[in-house]
């Protein structure tokens, strides 16, 4: 008797929020009081192996319920699908969801619905890696280059990156993979930390955390800027005094400025030798970034965490608008679109330094950077993954930092699985933490 193929049976969603605003963790010039949150999804199956696919979108509080609803709206596209077929070709789901004309009308390929598609596509990759018994970085790095190319959507980018280009990059990128994998397993992937630099922190806390970052082996930190120039000058002076001249300090304006402001502000801070200025203006303003880049050199220009899709990244690269490309694991349409973006960066020779932090973003994006190092770019020179030191304990396979480096995760999957007790506690508004908190507010 032929066994019935396993199917997706449920798409369970959760509105998970953490009260980070109370300690001003994550505060910056544009987002003064974020409550780091995850619109979380679990793909359930009827397979006897019990393996599930976990994924999420990152938000900062209000609106997480909207993001959860968007993920839930994708359930009819998933329930009943063959698990084997999905895991053998995650790109099939990506193509179906991106290509659905009525979902597409809500973008196209941008905003809440595009992020929702990324969450469920990432959940499929998580399940595929678990079923293969491998961490996702290894699954991708050892995958057949032709198969990887089949996972990429070349629509709108084929004028710059063709399938043939991608195949050449991936074939050439595999040279020396085994040696690099040994180095990765021994040393890890370099990181940098934003933990000292949140805008709401006192100078004393900034100094203490910056010195601790250096002691922990980090060679780069990042400070939030953009609210008040005099404050930024003081804070950068404080940070530079704390870490010395041999440590890179990046600065991040979180889209706060107009073009002229970005140039004037960055020029005023140039005396402190900032390594890059991140998100100096709107992530959609390609020519604005190019103007800023030309004016503030040798300070580098970085952006990407709010870039909507591979098409905008293509144009940023075509326009010589950025020095550093910052992918985000949960902003675009999942692993498949990030493969396209990594390939574009490799073709243009622009280093990728991912956005992370948030809830679970460090856990996810480490896999993409490690794949990039092993099987595409072949280098970690001038490449670092962002790191912040909170909320990792809510995941079953949290990131492990050793001497300023991300240790390569060995647990099968995409490192996206959140602890059930964390979901139960921080589910909004009826999880145990929020129920008690809201009751306390009512009592007060």
UniProtKB/TrEMBL annotation:
Source superkingdom: Bacteria
Regions that span the bilayer: none
Cofactor field: Mg(2+)
EC number assigned by the record: 4.2.1.68
CDD domains: rTSbeta_L-fuconate_dehydratase
Lineage, broadest ranks: Bacteria, Bacillati, Actinomycetota, Actinomycetes, Kitasatosporales
Molecular function as annotated in GO: L-fuconate dehydratase activity; magnesium ion binding
Gene3D superfamilies registered for this protein in UniProt: Enolase-like C-terminal domain, Enolase-like, N-terminal domain
GO biological process, one term: amino acid catabolic process
Catalysed reaction, written as an equation: L-fuconate = 2-dehydro-3-deoxy-L-fuconate + H2O
Pfam families in UniProt: MR_MLE_C (PF13378), MR_MLE_N (PF02746)
Protein name (record): L-fuconate dehydratase
Keywords assigned: Lyase, Magnesium, Metal-binding
Domain Mandelate racemase/muconate lactonizing enzyme C-terminal stretches: 203-299
């Amino acid at each position: 008797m032929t066994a019935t193929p396993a199917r997706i049976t449920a798409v369970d969603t959760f509105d998970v929020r953490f009260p980070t605003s109370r300690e001003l963790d994550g505060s910056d010039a544009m987002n003064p009081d974020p409550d780091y949150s995850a619109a979380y999804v679990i793909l359930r199956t009827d397979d006897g192996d019990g393996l599930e696919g976990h994924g999420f979108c990152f938000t900062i509080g209000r609106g997480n319920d909207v993001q959860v609803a968007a993920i839930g709206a994708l359930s009819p596209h998933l329930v009943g699908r063959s698990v084997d077929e999905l895991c053998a070709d995650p790109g099939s789901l990506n193509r179906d969801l991106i290509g659905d004309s009525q979902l597409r009308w809500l973008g196209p390929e941008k905003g809440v619905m595009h992020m929702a598609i990324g969450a469920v596509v990432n959940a499929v990759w998580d399940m595929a890696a678990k079923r293969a018994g491998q961490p996702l970085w290894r699954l991708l790095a050892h995958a057949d280059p032709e198969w990887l190319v089949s996972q990429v959507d070349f629509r709108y980018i084929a004028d710059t990156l063709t399938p043939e280009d991608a195949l050449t990059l991936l074939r050439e990128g595999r040279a020396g993979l085994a040696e690099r994998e040994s180095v990765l397993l021994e040393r890890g992937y370099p990181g940098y930390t934003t933990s000292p630099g949140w805008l709401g922190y006192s100078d004393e806390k900034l100094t203490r955390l910056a010195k601790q970052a250096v002691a922990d082996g980090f060679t780069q930190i990042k400070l939030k800027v953009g609210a008040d120039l005099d404050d930024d000058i003081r804070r950068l002076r404080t940070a530079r005094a704390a870490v010395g001249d041999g440590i890179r300090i990046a600065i991040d304006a979180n889209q706060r400025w107009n073009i002229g402001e970005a140039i004037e502000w960055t020029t005023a801070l140039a005396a402190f030798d900032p390594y890059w200025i991140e998100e100096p203006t709107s992530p959609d303003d390609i020519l604005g970034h190019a103007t800023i880049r030309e004016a503030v050199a040798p300070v580098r220009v970085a952006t990407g965490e709010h870039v909507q899709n591979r098409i905008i990244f293509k144009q940023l690269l075509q326009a010589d608008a950025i020095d550093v490309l910052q992918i985000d694991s949960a902003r675009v349409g999942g692993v498949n679109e990030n493969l396209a973006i990594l390939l574009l960066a490799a073709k243009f020779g622009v280093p990728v330094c991912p956005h992370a932090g948030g809830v679970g973003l460090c856990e996810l994006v480490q896999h993409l950077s490690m794949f990039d190092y092993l099987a595409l770019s072949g280098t970690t020179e001038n490449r670092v993954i962002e790191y912040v030191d909170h909320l990792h304990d809510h995941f079953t396979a949290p990131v492990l930092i050793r001497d300023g480096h991300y240790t390569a995760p060995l647990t099968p999957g995409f490192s996206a699985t959140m602890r059930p007790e964390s979901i139960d506690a921080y589910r909004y508004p009826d999880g145990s933490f929020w129920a008690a908190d809201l009751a306390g507010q009512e009592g007060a």
